[in-house]
Amino acid sequence: MLPDEVPPPDGAEPLDDPNVVDAAAHQRRRLSFGDRADEYDRFRPTYPSEAITWAVGHDPLEVCELGAGTGLMTAVLVAAGHRVTAVEPDPGMVAAAQRREGEQLTVVLGSAEEIPAPDASVDAVVAAQAFHWFDLPRAVPEMARVLRPGGRLVIVWNVRDDDEPWVSDMSRIVGRLDARSGTRDLGVPEISSHFADIKVETFAHAQQLTADDLVALCDTFSYVATSPRRAEILGEIRRLALEHPDLAGRETFALPYRTTVYRAVRRDL
Predict the structure, then answer these.
(1) Is the pLDDT of residue 191 over 90?
(2) How many other β-carbons are positioned within 10 Å of the β-carbon of residue 13?
(3) E strand or H helix that includes residue 198
(4) Is the CB of residue 219 less than 8 Å from the CB of residue 39?
(5) Is 212 helix (H, G, I), strand (E, B) or coil?
(6) Residue 37: pLDDT band by 50, 70, 90 thresholds?
(7) CB of 121 closer than 8 Å to CB of 100
(8) 153 to 156, 162, 262, 265: CA distances (angstroms)
(9) 55 — alpha (psi -120 to 50), left (phi > 0) or beta?
(10) Would you give the DSSP letter of residue 21?
(11) Which residues are paired to 85 by β-bridges?
C-alpha cells in the first residue's frame, strides 16, 4: 500500500516514525483532529472540482463519503450536484461538518469498518485524504457492500508538490513522515478481491496562504499536533515562511499540490 517510508530526521523521537507506531498511537492520531476541527476546516486545502468530475462523472449520484472530516470534499461533491451521506468517526469533526448540512447532505457519526448505510444503496464511495486510517480488511468489503452493481470507489490524495524548493524544505521540517497531511500519495492498497479496473489521474491544485496560515495548516497535521517537538516544528515553519528566499516579504503565496485520484469499479459479488 505505502511507498517506502522516509527515515526520520536526525534527532527525531522513535515514536515519530510511522513504521513503529503501535495500534494505540495510530488510534490516538486517527481521532486527534476533533479538537482542531475549526482550524482543520479553515486551513486544510479543498479539492479541484475537475477531479471529482473525472472520478464520478457529470450526472448526480448517491455518494457515501468516508472519513469526511469537516466536509471539505463533501462541499465539492455537493456543489457538483451529488447527494452525499458523509460518514465520520470523530464527534468533533461531525459537529463541524453538520454546519454544511442541507437538502443534498446528511452527516452521520460512523466508520468505514461499519458503514451506516444499507446494502447496494449508493453509486459511489469516496475517501479523500482518509483511506490510510481505515482497517482495510474490514472496510473494503463494507465499501463493496454499500455500492450498487458497477458502483465506483474513489480515493483522493492531496500531495504537496515538493518540486517547489520551499515546499521541499517545509516537508523536511515536518519530517516527511506525515503522509496523513499531504506529504505523499499513498496510492491504492490491495482491493482486487472486491474492486477492478483501477484508473488514476492527477490534477494541479494550489492553496493561497499567509505565513500565519502556513503555521496553522501544519498544526492540523496529526503528526505535528501529537509530536513532542510540536512547538519546535511550528517555529521552524514560521521562520521558513518569513525568511525563505522564495517567500520572504510576500504577504501571500501559493502552496502547490498534485491531487491524485484513483477510481475503481465494484466487482460483481
Answers:
(1) no
(2) 10
(3) strand 195-209
(4) yes
(5) helix
(6) confident
(7) no
(8) 10, 28, 8, 6
(9) alpha
(10) -
(11) 64, 106
Amino acid making up residue 194: H
Please report, as a single letter, which amino acid is at residue 132. Answer: H
| Tens of pLDDT, residues 206-255 | 999 999 999 999 998 888 888 899 999 999 999 999 999 999 999 999 99
Confidence at residue 132, expressed as pLDDT on a 0 to 100 scale: 84
Q: Residue 124 in 3-state DSSP? A: strand
Distances (CA, A) of 149 to 116, 143, 242, 243: 19, 12, 52, 54
pLDDT digits (tens, 9 = 90+) for 102-146: 999 999 999 999 999 999 999 999 999 998 889 999 999 999 999
C-beta of residue 73 within 8 angstroms of C-beta of residue 48: no
235-249 pLDDT, tens digit per residue, is 999 999 999 999 999
Q: Does the predicted TM-score (pTM) go above 0.85?
A: no
Amino acid type, 120: A
Q: What is the CATH number of domain 14-158+182-204+259-266?
A: 3.40.50.150
What is residue 55's three-state secondary structure?
helix
